[in-house]
Amino acid sequence: MPPLRRTIIAVVCAAGAGAQSLVYLRVFTDLQVLVPLMVAALGGAAAGLVTRRSGRLVALASACAGPFVLTGAPVAQLAEGLWLGWIRLLTIGLPAPVSGDLVATPILITATAAFAATITALRGGSGRALVVLATAFGVGLLLSASGPGEGVPLMGAAVVVLVVLLRVGPAPGRLRWAVWTVTVVTAGASGLVSAGGHDRFDPRTLVAPPPLDLGNLANPLARVRPQVCEEEPAGLFTLEIDGPVLARIRLVTLDHYDGITWTVGERFHVPGVRLGRGEGDPYRLRVTVTGLTGPFLPLAGQPERLSFTGAAPVLVEFADGTDTVVVDPPLRSGARYEVTVSHEAEVRPGDFLALPADTGPWLAKHAKEMTEGATTPWEQAVALEEKLKAERACADGAPAGHTLPALRRFLLDGAGGTVEQHAAAFALLARSLGLPSRVAVGYLLGEPVGGLHQVRNRDAHAWPEVYFEERGWVPFDAADGDLTPPRPTDPPPVSPPETHQPPPPPLPGGSQTGGRQVPWISVVLVATLLAVLALWVVVVTVTRLVRRLLRARGTPHRRVLGAWRESLDRLAEAGVVVRRSQTPLETIGGAPVTTPNPGRLADLVTRVQFSVGETTAVEAERAWILARRLAKDLRDVRPLPRRLLASLDPRLFWRSWR
């Protein structure tokens, strides 16, 4: 093949690989990611153009080296990305930052696709080159988020490869027909993906992030009272606010109660460039840790962006439904970070109404007694706050704990309680009335000094929050009045009264655990392997079918040769060594069958190849009959598992007699 034509084919395959890599823009919205991906496509195609068979692995590694250098990531980070990058792509929040460990896998896929497509196309496999690009695109779909229009990159790759490869030079009619067929099927499939991509299955939903090592960390709600009661005041962190005046800052939001303790029931995920998407004008918080320990970050509102000054934690995870961020390793003195926050995003109120299965009717009855005369959700929440303040004052000697029996004693026995009991009891009472509620743990903020809030251990506090559709989450304080920061007193606009009923309690013995979910990495790994296997089965099956149809077309002479090539495929699958230098009789001699069919086929093929006369249609039909008999004889002498494995052999695509 002339050098110019080879170069054009390599450039076309690079363009096709670059087009399929555009699917990763659903993961990385920063266009900077296109630089290493396009370099990977060019490098892979160039390696496929100049390499020889013996040095292909080295050439592919060289093609990936350039894009890896462009990422500017350390070697250790790139190595981790090659090993575990696909898992991080499935667990990180979107959009993801352009970092070496995340880009390593797309670079490898793109370079490999360009490399394999170029080698295949240079050997005359234009249709197979398109299949290679389609396979790379399918892997990209598994690693990226679903969304409309995601089939466009594959359609672009299909059109580019089709139009140019067919015009690079003359090709047999059957090859052109095969490429057109594969392209139409590929473009049609990608069009379906593009039209309904926003509803397709997204494997990201099955993946849980790696668990944080929280050790034996005490429940944050139970830690409020010990901090307040410490003999010596201790500084925990300083806070600078570029925005509205805040009365409190949240450490953790607890939304799940199992009758023993309040926990974060929502699954955490690894955030991307943006943590959440709140409403309203964002503002910034700058925090410097001086004595605070533990994995929870002090925050306010819905965090959107988070950046650390100096060494950042190895792992950051975010629960957007509760606006809680945890880090590993835990915070230490000297840590500094800046967070951009906004008002809380929209929530599903029904997620904050669950009660323990063994609550009993006493809670709802007591809540109705405390809110007698209140007709709107706002009035009910205010009534609960006022009743608890008036009748259940905080007591220094009150026993700690917020288990269901402890809260029942606190509410029914008329004794004083702790801050944690006031907050926990309020949230349960509100839920029994159908008011979505949760418990927040954090710190009260005093007046700033020089623009900085000095937060100390004695500022620790816990409070309940109730969700109103018109105003979002509104904090209430059921503890002593002097601990209550200012809160708007005008009730939100009242819609027509709507009756909220708490959800039915879960069945006894049902699993309703708070805390963190068990990672599904093993499930995702198995599902990914099965998906790749299924895709490979489809590709191999379609390829075999198209080849068989093409080989059975044309003149009688071509049909006889097509039957012989079909038989060579079956012999190779049976383990027979096939060499181009062998005659048909020598090739058939290695067949593990005793029937006369192989010899008859070899004689017929030899006669047709060296005959000076015209091959007849009868000879062509007989050749295909003998080929089918040979395939049956080979199936009969091999066990089913070996036949299945042989049928999926990737060497089907580049055997020398193609």
Automatic annotation (TrEMBL):
UniProt entry keywords in alphabetical sequence: Membrane, Transmembrane, Transmembrane helix
Residue intervals passing through the bilayer: 31-50, 57-83, 103-122, 129-146, 152-170, 177-197, 520-543
Top-level taxon of origin: Bacteria
Region described as Disordered: 478-514
Residues in Transglutaminase-like domain copies: 411-480
Pfam name, any one: Transglut_core
Bias-annotated ranges (Pro residues): 485-508
Name used for this protein in its record: Transglutaminase-like domain-containing protein
Organism: Herbidospora solisilvae
